[in-house]
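Appendix B. Extra example for self-study. Work through it before the problem class; the solution is given directly after the inputs so you can check yourself.
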Amino acid sequence: MKAEGTRGAILDAALELGSLQGLEELSLGSLASAVNMSKSGLFAHFGSKHELQLATIAQAWEVFEAEVVLDPPQSAQHGLHVLLERWLSFYQRKVFPGGCFFVISAVEFAGRADAVAKALASAVDRQTTALEAAVRKANASGELPIRKDPRQTAFALFSTLTNADALFQVREDPVVFDHARATIVDLLGPPGLADG
Amino acid sequence: MKAEGTRGAILDAALELGSLQGLEELSLGSLASAVNMSKSGLFAHFGSKHELQLATIAQAWEVFEAEVVLDPPQSAQHGLHVLLERWLSFYQRKVFPGGCFFVISAVEFAGRADAVAKALASAVDRQTTALEAAVRKANASGELPIRKDPRQTAFALFSTLTNADALFQVREDPVVFDHARATIVDLLGPPGLADG
DNA sequence: AAATAGCACGACCGATCGTGCTATTTCGAG
DNA sequence: CTCGAAATAGCACGATCGGTCGTGCTATTT
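Solution. Structure tokens for the complete assembly:
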């Protein structure tokens, strides 16, 4: 899912550095030296830091979507559990080395009115909406032993996922993913009762 | 829980600005003008930004501890639920206007080795430990309808609490606290079964 | 071969950062 | 009323910030 070309290389590096330090702390200078370019040469690709941030968010979403959300063709039967497992794996593999780009940055930019804040809030919304849709589908497909309220359950699942990521960043101990998986079972019941 | 004296006033402002923008982005200049002081006059109180950050973290913990953790003398019977409710209220009242100081900053500083990162990680540990202890006590007191694994449950509760805070920051919609309360019931069962 | 267009470059701008060093002010004890 | 210590302000520093400028290389087009 690496992007090609100079601009793509810049965005890949921006993704890495931005997730580690936050979108605002990511400076043009440090990014330029990370891709072995001059600051001005890099800058010309975007025109403003604002635009660079927006492009980075868009790239981050593409990576996340491809790795987590986009349909794995198999297993409509366990769609929700597959989604959650891919999500946890995404965090555990540190695809964004500094952790979940969206929630951290969205909180960092919360309260501002600019386009960057809006883009981040929208990314968070897309994440929770994806969870909500998966819960709905799981309700319909019989994947869940009992029906669950989609909004409410999406909130609980999103909490579990993002907190696993955050604590993994802080503690560097993958045991948080075991806790997350146990919490998911607590919240949803064991998978596959409907078609065992 | 306001701290007194000039230094206390500085720390109160540091708490507010730091929670809004993050500990690193909090600059001496903006902080100085927020308390109507010169940058150097403020600086003399701490000697380095490092020390200011550490003092701010300590102050933040004192505020949090007094508002949430320290024993409310009543209701040993519902200790865990009271703790969770105070915790949510702490977030909803925006005592730290930019949201939970500790998790956000701890993730921001994750990976570094300095004392600030260590202090933040320790604050997060104290939070999860407080939850764990409350779960243990609830197990013993019969507050919970069924016994719960303390570590595992502390993780799930901490997820719920911090995610409510984060989404509240992003969405400005207090409905997230309803979701959080429902999730708590999901995780723990209804309160007060043991002594109803 | 000449003209053009896309990239990337180094130099530089004003602003702000954290941090020293030195005055000045403030204030309580004698 | 004075004196000395503590608190605060003034000022300057080197570094870095986002951003602009003119310039040179290297293709492609004409």
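Self-check: Residues 27-29, 39-40, 43, 48-49 of chain A lie near DNA strand D (CB under 10 Å from a C1'). If your reasoning did not lead you there, revisit section 3.
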